[in-house]
UniProtKB/TrEMBL annotation:
Any single Pfam family the record assigns to this protein: Tll0287-like
Keywords of this entry: Signal
Superkingdom: Bacteria
Ranges of residues in domain Tll0287-like: 41-256
Full protein name: Tll0287-like domain-containing protein
InterPro entries found in the cross-reference section: Tll0287-like_dom
Organism: Nitrospira defluvii
Signal peptide: 1-19
């Protein structure tokens, strides 16, 4: 693969620079036949998908105490309740109202994929109701990473767009990074790396765009992934010794050009 000028794309997608009307400058540097505005649209779509998946993870994270309460049989964490919190979380992080996608400026592809991700996320919550509402049981194992894995698997099957949670030292072997992901994760691990700045790249054959969106440890994450390093967490897995706000991996997106 050839490295895109992803820093420019990030600035445009974030609204810090205006989108260019043509792709000629990028085509000459990337030697790609894909118009520059199409590449920017792909990058924006991939970034928004990563933010939406992470927003769902954050909603699960915020409700972890409720979900693991053994005294409550019915938690009220229904697909509808989840969706309301997801919309609020995503709007706060992206500035986009999921209820007004039809009247917005996003591309048809972006709108379709975001709506599909919301639908799949709600399905995962719906299918988990029996385990979440099991009275007398405390920790149920339904954590942000588990939610993200279930959503990613279904979303990929439905849309052909691959979502993946990965880290340099994954607990789940299925999340092991490939060579491209490892390079990005090593960059994210540098404490000087700008927070939430993505890394993206077009495939050499211009068939797909890859994007890496960094994740950070929250207080809830530290319950299992914090210190002391090497000590066993409640799942019996050795703790990683992360600190609050430290990079905790990334969401990897592989978006085919034709999707």
């Amino acid at each position: 693969m050839r490295r895109l000028p992803w820093m420019l794309a990030c600035l445009v997608a974030a609204g810090w620079l205006p989108a260019l009307p043509s792709a000629r400058g990028l085509e000459s540097s990337d030697r790609s036949t894909i118009p520059f505005h199409t590449i920017l649209e792909l990058e924006q779509t991939a970034r928004l998908l990563a933010i939406l998946l992470d927003s769902g993870r954050a909603v699960v994270n915020d409700n972890q105490t409720l979900l693991d309460d053994p005294t409550k049989a019915h938690k009220g964490f229904t697909p509808e309740a989840f969706e309301g919190q997801l919309r609020d979380m995503f709007r706060g992080r992206s500035g986009i109202n999921l209820e007004e996608l039809a009247g917005g400026t996003l591309s048809p592809r972006s709108r379709h994929l975001l709506q599909e991700l919301v639908t799949v996320s709600k399905q995962v919550i719906a299918d988990a109701q029996a385990e979440l509402n099991r009275q007398g049981a405390g920790f149920k194992g339904f954590i942000p990473a588990v939610f993200g894995a279930r959503v990613s698997t279904r979303f990929t099957a439905v849309t052909g767009v691959r979502l993946k949670q990965t880290t340099l030292d994954p607990r789940n072997p299925a999340n092991r990074p490939d060579s491209y992901e490892r390079v990005a994760l090593e960059a994210f691990a540098d404490s000087a790396y700008p927070r939430e700045k993505v890394i993206s790249e077009m495939a050499a054959n211009s068939s797909s765009l890859r994007l890496m969106f960094p994740l950070y440890a929250t207080r809830q994450c530290l319950d299992c992934h914090g210190g002391p390093k090497g000590g066993l967490d409640r799942t019996g897995y050795p703790r990683e010794g992360l600190t609050l706000g430290q990079n905790a991996g990334a969401i990897s997106v592989l978006l085919p050009v034709g999707k």
